């Protein structure tokens, strides 16, 4: 399947609309995510490895905010547990439609059920693995604790939650450094200053990052036994929370 180069913000925009996962983003999403999120490929690969380790027979694995299904497909390749299937959920109809087309193209592995829904409204049950791969940061702040509590309650003992997020830092110098290094990363991927600036404006009130301390505290309050960072590349990190 062909995907275009991300040039959504390459030309000056008179009015910059809030970022949303519509058809225009779907058409460039693989290129956008690769050039915008440092270490994205490594995270996807490791999600597959972790799913292979933690998935259990007669359980469900959830990819919440699945977009085009990169994490789902990585899990499908690695899951060997008997009668273990994946539930992939996203609220963007454009993302789900394209993902279903991609999924139909074939591939062995665990059964996948693709659902177009708000992840705050779906039931979590018999879960051995749950993935929130750069998803929680788009959920309203006031809904994040209840979502994680619901996930915890629906997980089997010994289950794992993989939570990837853009981070902010409490120390102003660290925050400035990490943001600057991320911008340098994007420039190295070919984005211009105009593209970086306009996309930052589009995401300003949509993507709301928090510090690792806040994430860890919320995960522990939800009931998880431990929560630690396993991967970090500038201000992007992925955490493992164990039940």
UniProtKB/TrEMBL annotation:
Reaction catalysis annotation: prephenate + S-adenosyl-L-methionine = carboxy-S-adenosyl-L-methionine + 3-phenylpyruvate + H2O
Assigned keywords, A-Z: S-adenosyl-L-methionine, Transferase
Q: What is its EC number?
A: 2.1.3.-
InterPro entries for the chain: CmoA (IPR005271), Methyltransf_25 (IPR041698), SAM-dependent_MTases_sf (IPR029063)
Q: Does the keyword S-adenosyl-L-methionine apply?
A: yes
UniProt xrefs under Pfam families: Methyltransf_25
Organism superkingdom = Bacteria
Record-annotated residues binding S-adenosyl-L-methionine?
40, 65-67, 118-119, 133, 200
- Under which main EC class is this enzyme filed? transferase
Is Manganese a UniProt keyword of this protein? no
Q: Which Gene3D superfamilies match?
A: Vaccinia Virus protein VP39
Give start and end of each Methyltransferase domain.
63-159
NCBIfam families, alphabetically? carboxy-S-adenosyl-L-methionine synthase CmoA, PRK15451.1
Q: Belongs to which family?
A: Belongs to the class I-like SAM-binding methyltransferase superfamily. Cx-SAM synthase family.
Q: Briefly, what is this protein's role? A: Catalyzes the conversion of S-adenosyl-L-methionine (SAM) to carboxy-S-adenosyl-L-methionine (Cx-SAM).
> What is known about its subunit structure?
Homodimer.
Q: Which HAMAP family match?
A: Cx_SAM_synthase
Q: What is this protein called?
A: Carboxy-S-adenosyl-L-methionine synthase
**Organism source for this protein?**
Methylomonas rapida
Give the classification, highest ranks: Bacteria, Pseudomonadati, Pseudomonadota, Gammaproteobacteria, Methylococcales
């Amino acid at each position: 399947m062909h995907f275009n180069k991300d040039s959504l913000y390459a030309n000056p925009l008179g009015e910059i609309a809030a970022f949303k996962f519509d058809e225009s983003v779907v058409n460039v999403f693989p290129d956008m995510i690769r050039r915008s999120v440092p270490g994205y490929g490594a995270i996807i690969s490791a999600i597959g490895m972790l799913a292979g380790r933690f998935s259990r027979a007669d359980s469900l694995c959830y990819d919440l905010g699945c977009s085009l299904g990169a994490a789902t497909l990585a899990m499908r390749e690695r899951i060997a547990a008997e009668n273990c299937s994946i539930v992939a959920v996203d609220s963007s109809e454009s993302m789900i439609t394209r993902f279903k087309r991609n999924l139909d193209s074939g591939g062995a592995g665990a059964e996948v059920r693709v659902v177009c829904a708000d992840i705050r409204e779906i039931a979590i049950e018999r879960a051995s693995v749950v993935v929130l791969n750069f998803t929680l940061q788009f959920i309203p702040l006031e809904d994040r604790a209840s979502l994680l509590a619901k996930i915890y309650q629906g997980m089997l003992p010994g289950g794992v939650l993989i939570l990837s997020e853009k981070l902010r830092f409490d120390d102003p110098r660290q925050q400035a450094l990490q943001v600057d290094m991320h911008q340098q990363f994007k420039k190295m991927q070919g984005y211009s200053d105009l593209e970086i600036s306009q996309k930052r404006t589009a995401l300003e009130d949509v993507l709301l990052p928090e510090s690792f301390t806040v994430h860890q505290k919320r995960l522990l309050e939800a009931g998880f036994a431990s929560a630690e960072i396993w991967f970090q590349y500038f201000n992007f990190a992925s955490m493992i929370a164990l039940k």
